[in-house]
């Protein structure tokens, strides 16, 4: 495809003005091979696009979302595989990488659903098997928008500094969008989560990150710790927060 960025931008704006999806309109889809060769020989920049066969429908049985079906031409159109710099795009790299690594199940956010469509088309074209897919729903902040930095702590280390136990974090995060079919909420070790976890019980609805619930779960984990384990952890945390002198060593001093 020899369309320039300016031409593609004009096509996008025109499609939006006409209420159509802003996708490639196939300008170079049926180009004369001689004209393509002439332009390439002249050194014109170009991208390589994936030509989607007419009337192509792709369907998957998503582990989380159930049956998902796309009209490939209407959904994504002939998408780019190689940029004008010769660098392959994300979807091409991921599809090939998954295939060569023998990936059997892809678990990721629902935002990647249309990426899965592109990757399946690539896998089919290359003769690779298509993995199973599980597109999990987004985690939302307290304002019901997508969880982001503005909602608070953004790293595991920050949660540690705030006094949250690793096992409590695993416990809480496992419950975001999943349950074991009962009312159980406390899993005191990762092994307990692994033993109970079933991907088929992950729900398709968005889940809100509830800080109060995390605090409660962390409190339950803290209360369940024997004193001989809790005391040195409390000591280290208080020292990190500069609330206790580092010379304090023994449990009896605490």
Automatic annotation (TrEMBL):
Listed Pfam families: tRNA-synt_1c
Gene Ontology CC annotation, any one: mitochondrion
Glutamyl/glutaminyl-tRNA synthetase class Ib catalytic domain residues: 1-216
SUPFAM superfamilies according to UniProt: An anticodon-binding domain of class I aminoacyl-tRNA synthetases, Nucleotidylyl transferase
GO terms of biological process kind: glutamyl-tRNA aminoacylation
GO MF: ATP binding; glutamate-tRNA ligase activity; tRNA binding
The keyword Ion transport appears for this protein: no
InterPro entries, per the entry: aa_tRNA-synth_I_cd-bd_sf, Glu-tRNA-ligase_bac/mito, Glu/Gln-tRNA-synth_Ib_cat-dom, GluQ/Sye, Rossmann-like_a/b/a_fold
TM regions (residue ranges): none
Keywords: Aminoacyl-tRNA synthetase, ATP-binding, Ligase, Nucleotide-binding, Protein biosynthesis
Family stated for the protein in its record: Belongs to the class-I aminoacyl-tRNA synthetase family. Glutamate--tRNA ligase type 1 subfamily.
Listed name of the protein: Glutamyl/glutaminyl-tRNA synthetase class Ib catalytic domain-containing protein
Protein species of origin: Rhodosorus marinus
């Amino acid at each position: 495809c020899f369309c320039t960025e300016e031409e593609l931008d004009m096509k996008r704006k025109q499609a939006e003005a006409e209420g159509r999806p802003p996708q490639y309109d196939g300008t170079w889809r049926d180009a004369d091979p001689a004209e393509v060769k002439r332009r390439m020989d002249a050194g014109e920049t170009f991208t390589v696009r994936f030509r989607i066969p007419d009337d192509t429908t792709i369907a998957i049985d998503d582990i989380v979302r159930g049956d998902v079906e796309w009209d490939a031409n209407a959904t994504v159109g002939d998408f780019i595989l190689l940029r004008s710099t010769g660098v392959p795009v994300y979807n091409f790299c991921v599809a090939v990488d998954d295939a060569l690594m023998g990936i059997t199940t892809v678990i990721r956010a629902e935002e990647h659903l249309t990426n899965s469509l592109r990757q399946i088309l690539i896998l089919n074209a290359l003769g690779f098997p298509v993995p199973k897919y599980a597109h999990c729903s987004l985690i939302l902040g307290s304002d019901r928008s997508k969880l982001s930095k503005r909602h608070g702590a953004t790293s595991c280390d920050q949660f540690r500094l705030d006094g949250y136990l690793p096992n409590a974090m695993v416990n809480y995060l496992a419950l975001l969008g999943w349950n074991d079919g009962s009312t159980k909420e406390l899993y005191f070790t990762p092994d307990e989560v692994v033993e109970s976890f079933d991907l088929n019980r992950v729900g398709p609805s968005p889940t809100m990150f509830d800080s109060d619930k995390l605090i409660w779960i962390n409190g339950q984990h803290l209360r369940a710790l024997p004193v001989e384990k809790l005391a040195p952890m409390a000591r280290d945390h208080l020292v990190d927060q500069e609330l206790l002198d580092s010379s304090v060593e023994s449990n009896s001093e605490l």
